[in-house]
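fwd from M.: "can u put these together and see what the complex looks like"

so here's what she sent:
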Amino acid sequence: MRVFLNKSTGRMIESQSGGETHPDPEIDDEEYAAMNLNTLLQNAIGWGYKAEDIEVKFVTNEEFAVLMEATRLPPTEERIYEEKIKLRMRELAIESLKVDEILPVVLK
Amino acid sequence: MQIPYPPKTDNPLLDVWLEQLVAELSNILATPTELNAVTDPTGRAQGDMLYASAANTLAWLAKGAANLKLFMNAGATVPEWAAGIKIGVTGYDTATATGTQAVTGVGFKPSHLILFAQVASTVEISWGFSNGTSDHCVLNDLSTFFGRDSSYCIFLYQEPGIYTRATISALGADGFTISWTKVGAKVGTATIYYMAFR
């Protein structure tokens, strides 16, 4: 995996798989990998980051898993409750549907 | 192949005509000989194919590995064997302002994409397709039923008025460009699984 990290926060802003080797044997893998890292750098610059404030690199799957875990939204009680409410609202809406209301929608 | 010239006669005009005739015949005979050298299948493997590597030039294309498909190369000049399909993943902080994300490392120029997108620890999810000009998806838009959209191939709906959505704005030699539009105070890191078809 290739990742783009914000140096000041350590947060992973973007990641991409592949890009280390090219299926065409005539393409130099080292140059190809560098080019693909540059993709992340150019994306970052396009999003307003300064080159000196970010780090782009290849990471192992294990390293990536750690970085990815850190990007999860904080599993606070409030957040979990919010997501549960969203799901429950959908369930309630579906449960409240009456056959004569849903049939025209289904048959449309 | 050069045909030996006949002995001179007493007729100079006839000699000139004969020389021209011999030269023409030599040319005609030479062409098939060279062609045979190229088309001679001796030493070729089962599955190898003849193709024109340039105008008026024949060459052999070695057979491809099992289950590879035959494509025209990127320059649209000669055929080549390739898988032409790739599964990959990209992650994206949806708090990022509206902008583009170049995704590379695909290994070929995709023609179509299937995209599954999700934000961890949320119910935000979408399933979409794109060919670089048409984008479609179905999504969890928190309505009674799942929603659908025929303008975007990724649509991550956080709550009313807060979402990010995307189209595929370009298909490049080694990947594609996602054009993101962020609305409201969107947060969360999206994981986008893609399947790219050459």
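replying to her w this: The longest strand of chain A covers residues 2-6.
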